[in-house]
Design brief:
alpha/beta; LS/RS
């Protein structure tokens, strides 16, 4: 029996085109996520000229903008950044759940990584912690995930449909 080989992405072959789609709502938190994401991409060798930023009103609008970016720009990866903070109504669940589900579906539909850097938190304090203080910067973490997936997918070559047909 042949041993199972292991394949994983690295942070060496990550240059390419990245689009960051950003929800402006809660911008006082989200701006830090964008800074962390851009810094991480550039530090790992992505040319700053290959990073585009698209602004949308909020997290709910992210999936539509991401879909259009994937259709038109065809980037190597998309980073979705935003912040949904729980309030006293069920609005939180609808926005967070709908946004997350749609983004997951888009990455499968377009065979392109969509890194989820949308904070879904209980309070503004938690959001601030995840935007660069106590809990790290989730924008930087989304950038790392995007780069690793770009590298991983390159291990399988350019023709993603090659093995799927019987």
């Amino acid at each position: 029996m042949q041993p199972i080989s292991q394949v994983e992405g690295s942070f060496v072959d990550v240059d390419g085109r990245y689009v960051i789609v950003v929800g402006r709502f809660n911008h006082h938190v989200v701006d830090s996520l964008v800074e962390g994401a851009v810094d991480s991409l550039v530090r790992h060798g992505v040319d700053a000229e290959n990073i585009d930023i698209v602004h949308v009103p909020g997290a709910w609008e992210l999936p539509l903008a991401i879909k259009r970016v994937l259709q038109v720009a065809r980037p190597d990866a998309v980073l979705a950044l935003g912040a949904v903070i729980r309030g006293g109504t069920p609005h939180f669940e609808y926005v967070a759940g709908g946004c997350n589900t749609a983004m997951g579906n888009l990455q499968l539909e377009f065979d392109t990584p969509v890194a989820n850097g949308v904070l879904t938190v209980e309070s503004i304090e938690q959001a601030i912690e995840r935007a660069g203080t106590k809990a790290g910067n989730k924008g930087a973490e989304a950038a790392m995930a995007a780069m690793e997936m770009v590298s991983l997918l390159r291990c399988f070559g350019d023709d993603a449909d090659a093995g799927g047909e019987a």
